[in-house]
Batch of 3 targets.
Target 1
Amino acid sequence: MYNIFLENLEIIKNYIGNGHIFFLYLIAVIYLLITEKEKQLRILIIYVPMSILFFFLLPLTRWLYVAVGLDGETYYRILWLLPMGISIAYAGFKLYAGFNKVYLRIISIVVVCAVIVISGSYVYKNPHISRAENLYNMPQVTINVCDFILADAEFDHIWAVFPKEHVSFVRQYSSLIRLAYGRDVLVDRWIIESPIYDLMEKQDIIDIPALLEFTREKNVNYIVFHWTRSVSDNPENYGLLLLDQIDGMLIYRDEVVAQKIRETYGPYYPRWW
């Protein structure tokens, strides 16, 4: 149990990063504990979050979390329940409102904003973060390809294969497009095997006949390649129809699977979206 407690401490350490914002959050909680008089707000932004943090550290909580079937790898997500941003902002407002003179209010708000800025970091220094291309905060090419597939689909049976760099975004953009492999395959420590993923991503040249053997087992009717990928054969010789090329992505519809779907649903099966 003690080892689990230490692991929980390590999870918190990794979660808070450099610790500046978390330290500021604790200061805000202490300040609100002293100044906040409204009972409901004290419960909401002080007692409940601190209880969450306390129970998070308990080994028994983590044991129960895993025992009910939840993934231990996602235990850290409990910390998402801590209202750090809200508490810091509210504490800053309380400090601001506590002064009667205008110049003191201006000084207090400038100081609070400066402390928040200094406690953070410039997010675009992170190589995994890029400026948003649209309101969805995801690559525009993914949206364009998904919109094309949704417009082309005859029925609500839409199974697709995308290059790995698009997988996480497809699942965010539309639940109507089901993927032959998802993000779980991309995380090495989960050890999820997928022959389709292996053929798409782990070979220098995509073996088209071998790929179709597995995609047709899953009734995958759309296959998307980047135009720079090398393939063993012309996909159109194996029943794939090239529908379009969008932003460097080749969109194929598997006519063998499409015909099977037509025979299954019939010509009058409506789309519900």
Target 2
Amino acid sequence: MLCEHCNNHFHGEWQIEVVGQNARHLGIARVRFVRCAACKRFTVDATVFDTAGASSKDWFRLSPLPTNAAHKAPPEVPQEIGEVHVEAHAVLPVSARASAALSRRCLQQILRERGYYANDLKAEIEQLLNETDATRALPASLRETIDAIRNFGNFSAHPITETTSLQVIDVEPHEAEWCLDILDDLFEHFYVKLAEARKRKEALNAKLEAAGKPPAL
């Protein structure tokens, strides 16, 4: 089978345990688990069997949380930031507040990597919005969305500092989804487009070098 933790194939057998029975004998809760031979981590599912044992509901995954490949960050994004982004998507169906907290952590990592560093996330966002260097300033459309993130939910009432960047505060589900959309836009702006521009410049310089001309600055 394929391990969803490390993406390696391994041979293993599910072990099944009964974890509880409904007081009215309407069903028996069970978990099954298997350990990957490569990474040594467990995959865990759960289900509820009816008392007759004739059928069961579908198993659902407890660990690792299911993720959609479409939600993975582009390969140009640093691994540490990309992993937090994946986690924010994974927990959204379970907790919008937890997802938003992870998105804020991801946003703070992006800003600090770009040199915007302050005691709290709100101040770091303000540094980005007040950027005077035209080569680093955000386009107008992205500025508006980044500016608005400071005002949704109880963001302004709960400063996100170095020690509280994962603080869970009340948000609406659509606000948590919006945070994820903003991260996608930032990935495109800060990483994907930058990498594409670098590749185009390298290709141009290769042509110039072949022609005996100096490289483009």
Target 3
Amino acid sequence: MITEYTEICILCGRPRTDKHHLLNGRDRQKCDEDGIIIPLCSVCHREIHKNATCEKLCKIAGQLAWEKDFYKNGNSGNAREKFRKKYLKSYL
């Protein structure tokens, strides 16, 4: 997960009931593997999916977190290009 606080909603602080994959569709399994997930309560999760701007910002945040971890884990090279190859798209 993107945060170390996995048992509370990242937006409102209520107990986590859901996890939100920051990249959706065919990339859910990759998100699970890469930890591109945030903890949410069911109310905040529904609200994110209703708001196109929130959805887009989630994708941007997910890519930025992935790129940060790419370098943090000692990798070298162009993180953005590696992300593009893995997820077939860049949100930045």
